[in-house]
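Regression test case RT-17, inverse folding.

Input:
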């Protein structure tokens, strides 16, 4: 079992992975074929219990931490080494699908089952994690379990979060029996991989099986206000107007143009516009609009923002109207570790799957893990790019392919004994 050829020919059992996904999807199944399994409900407990039962059957050791994150560990030869970890979440949106999150956890279990089938021992231990409340639909913030684990916010802050009925995270965790002993984060990680459906249309559009995720887009949000002067639409000649909307529109268009000037990952959106006084026969005196800029690095997002601000300064000087741009939020870009990104790409090449570099426009638990250990993600296509919807769908062959890539990327990092 030790030759490189034998390891290279190793494949997961796609049918078993599919069966497990379908079995877990029964818990909280909706009539439309989706899943509603909100975090820390009785159904979440049933889901957790089922997954842990499978892990125990696969010979894994279970640890639960104080925020209810679950760690399922397969011993390695050298258990002093930090584990090579994979994971995701098994909570869903109220109108969620079968694959978002669940796939990442069950792909990890399938990797372990495959190693067991073939009697393969790894140098470092392998761990599969499920993170509490990734979705954030019952309790905010989103990515709660991994966020507490990575110390992005405190356990006390997470415990105090309440749902619409006033129930707290702490009480609900205790009620379903998932407050563990381990302090969150008191748990070394050697490397972290997460498999996930893409939740976007790029892979399907490119007819590609594996997305080698380079990172998660950074985001800057601004509010922009252009201030002119209201006046009657009839008596005021064109040369004497201070029309805020006419100054705002080229700036709005430049938000989109700035994204086009920074391909391939630039995104620019003006999603909200308010015109004052918003009256047919009044020259707009004030326009307020939102700016959403995203790109794969913080530097690129900053460049886009600088370009928009430079145009604002020029338009203001030309028109004599005041333009204010105020930043309201900022989320840093997360670039995944080159070693993990390369391990995913190498595995996809080796296995003969079509693959391409992609970025994630959505947040994932891996974003927090990337602050703690080299991390990477594997995307597979989902039908029409749709998720957070009961019609979310993924093909068995894609689910199998992503899991095979996970297996080989994890083996590369964990090292095979022999
Ligand atoms: Zn997810």
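Golden output:
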């Amino acid at each position: 079992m030790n030759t490189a050829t034998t390891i290279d020919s190793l494949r997961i059992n796609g049918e078993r992975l599919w069966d497990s996904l379908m079995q877990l999807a029964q818990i909280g199944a909706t009539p439309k074929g989706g899943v509603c399994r909100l975090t820390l409900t009785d159904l979440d407990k049933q889901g957790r219990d089922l997954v842990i039962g499978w892990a125990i059957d696969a010979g894994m050791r279970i640890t639960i931490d104080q925020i209810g994150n679950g760690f399922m560990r397969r011993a390695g030869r050298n258990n002093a080494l930090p584990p090579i970890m994979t994971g995701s979440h098994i909570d869903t949106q109220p109108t969620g699908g079968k694959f978002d999150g669940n796939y990442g956890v069950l792909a990890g279990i399938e990797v372990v089952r495959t190693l067991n089938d073939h009697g393969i021992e790894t140098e470092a231990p392998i761990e599969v994690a499920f993170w509490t409340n990734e979705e954030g639909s019952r309790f905010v913030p989103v990515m709660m379990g991994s966020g507490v684990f990575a110390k992005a916010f405190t356990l006390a802050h997470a415990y105090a979060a309440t749902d619409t009925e006033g129930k707290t995270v702490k009480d609900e965790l205790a009620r379903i029996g998932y407050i563990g002993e381990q302090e969150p984060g008191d748990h070394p990680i050697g490397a972290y991989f997460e498999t996930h459906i893409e939740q976007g249309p790029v892979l399907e559009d490119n007819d590609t099986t594996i997305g080698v995720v380079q990172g998660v887009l950074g985001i800057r949000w601004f509010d922009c206000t252009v201030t002119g002067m209201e006046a009657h639409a009839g008596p005021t000649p064109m040369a004497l107007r201070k029309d805020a909307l006419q100054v705002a529109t080229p700036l709005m268009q430049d938000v989109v143009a700035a994204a086009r000037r920074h391909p391939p990952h630039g995104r620019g959106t003006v999603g909200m516009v308010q015109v004052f006084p918003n009256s047919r026969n009044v020259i707009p005196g004030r326009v307020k609009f939102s700016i959403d800029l995203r790109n794969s690095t913080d530097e690129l997002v900053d460049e886009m923002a600088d370009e928009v601000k430079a145009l604002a300064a020029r338009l203001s000087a030309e028109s004599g109207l005041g333009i204010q741009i105020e930043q309201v939020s900022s989320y840093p870009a997360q670039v995944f570790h080159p070693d993990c990104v390369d391990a995913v790409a190498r595995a996809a090449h080796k296995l003969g799957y079509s693959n391409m570099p992609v970025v994630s426009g959505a947040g994932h638990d891996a974003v927090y893990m990337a602050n703690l250990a080299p991390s990477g993600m594997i995307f597979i296509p989902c039908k029409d790019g749709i998720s957070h919807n009961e019609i979310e769908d993924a093909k068995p062959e894609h689910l199998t392919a992503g899991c095979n890539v996970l297996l080989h990327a994890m083996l590369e990092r964990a090292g095979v004994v022999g």
